[in-house]
Amino acid sequence: MPAYRRILLKLSGEALMGDDAYGINRATIVRMVREVQEVTQLGCEVAVVIGGGNIFRGVAGGSVGMDRATADYMGMLATVMNSLALADTMRQEGMTARVMSAISIEQVVEPYVRPKALQYLEEGKVVVFAAGTGNPFFTTDTAAALRGAEIGAQIVLKATKVDGVYTADPKKDPTATRYTNISFDEAIAKNLQVMDATAFALCRDQKLPIKVFSIFKSGALKRVVQGEDEGTLVHV
Ligand SMILES: Nc1ncnc2c1ncn2[C@@H]1O[C@H](COP(=O)(O)OP(=O)(O)O)[C@@H](O)[C@H]1O
Ligand SMILES: O=c1ccn([C@@H]2O[C@H](COP(=O)(O)OP(=O)(O)O)[C@@H](O)[C@H]2O)c(=O)[nH]1
């Protein structure tokens, strides 16, 4: 039995490149999709938000000196590409997925319409939310918090490059230690950078918990969905 009936899963875009310099690594995306499939088989309804760092990083050099909003629209388009790749990989693995975009690009993907998204979830389809929030100056973490609240997810799961929230950035400070639990107020007050403050604040206000765990650790997603001890829980 899953511990959550409906989840919003945020997948790191950057992790999609695997050991490549940029882009989508085939083995990595297939592995991620199979992990999602495992939790759908537990009877959990899954909505996904995916980042764009793997593609955007590859073009970021060209964005130097660019208008911030324009660069952010490029980042959002990168998430559309990742969403299409993700949904297609799901199709190849025998799942049914629908991509919904926050910016209109109708020949490519259908627009985000909340009741339609809810319908797909009830039908057991995986919904992939593309183009972030549709607004520059935001991140896909904030999009995950927003969509998570909108669809009534019981938790936002952030599958990222680190295995939880640490006292400091573990990539910079080797003495940092991991929290098992931390409150939103403490995470915000200590300015812990694992997620942006907008995403934290939105989830706090909506009383929507967040679980941060490693995208690289095999089986971690399933353990999280089964309510086992894994990663860090950020709670009200
Ligand atoms: N206090 C902290 N605890 C954990 N990770 C942190 C912390 N501060 C900064 N980080 C960094 O945040 C990164 C994850 O956030 P982000 O860049 O949004 O990744 P993603 O690709 O999943 O969107 C980690 O790679 C880690 O180095
Ligand atoms: O609502 C949003 C979501 C994303 N972005 C842009 O899209 C990029 C890619 O998303 P993100 O960095 O969150 O992806 P990840 O870190 O998971 O690879 C961001 O840097 C922003 O430039 C944006 O402008 N608004």
Structural account:
The longest helix has 25 residues, at 68-92. This protein has eight helices and nine strands. It has helices at residues 26-41, 53-59, 68-92, 114-122, 140-150, 184-189, 197-206, 220-225, and strands at 6-11, 45-50, 97-101, 110-111, 126-130, 155-160, 181-183, 210-214, 232-235. It has a single domain (6-235), classed as Acetylglutamate kinase-like (Carbamate kinase). By secondary structure, the protein is of the alpha/beta class. The protein has a nine-stranded mixed β-sheet, with helices on both faces. Uridine-5'-diphosphate is lined by residues 12-14, 51-53, 56, 72, 75-76, 78-79, 132-133, 135-136, 138-143. It is found in: Cytoplasm. Catalyzes the reversible phosphorylation of UMP to UDP. It comes from Ideonella lacteola. Keywords: ATP-binding, Cytoplasm, Kinase, Nucleotide-binding, Pyrimidine biosynthesis, Transferase.
Largest sheet: 9 strands, mixed
Please tell me the CATH architecture by its name.
3-Layer(aba) Sandwich
The CATH superfamily is Acetylglutamate kinase-like
What characteristic shape results from the CA principal axes?
globular
Q: What is the beta-strand fraction?
A: 15-25%
The CATH class, by name, is Alpha Beta
Helix and strand content put the structural class at: alpha/beta
CATH topology category name: Carbamate kinase
**Count of DSSP strands:** 9
Percent of residues in helical segments? Answer: 25-40%
The number of helices is: 8
Cofactors and ligands: adenosine-5'-diphosphate, uridine-5'-diphosphate
What do the pLDDT scores average to?
A: 96
Write the element-wise H/E pattern from the N-terminal end onward. EHEHHEEHEHEEHHEHE
In whole angstroms, the N-to-C terminal distance is 25 Å
Instruction: Report low-confidence residues grouped into runs of 5 or more.
Output: none
Count of discrete structural domains? 1
Computed Rg: 17 Å
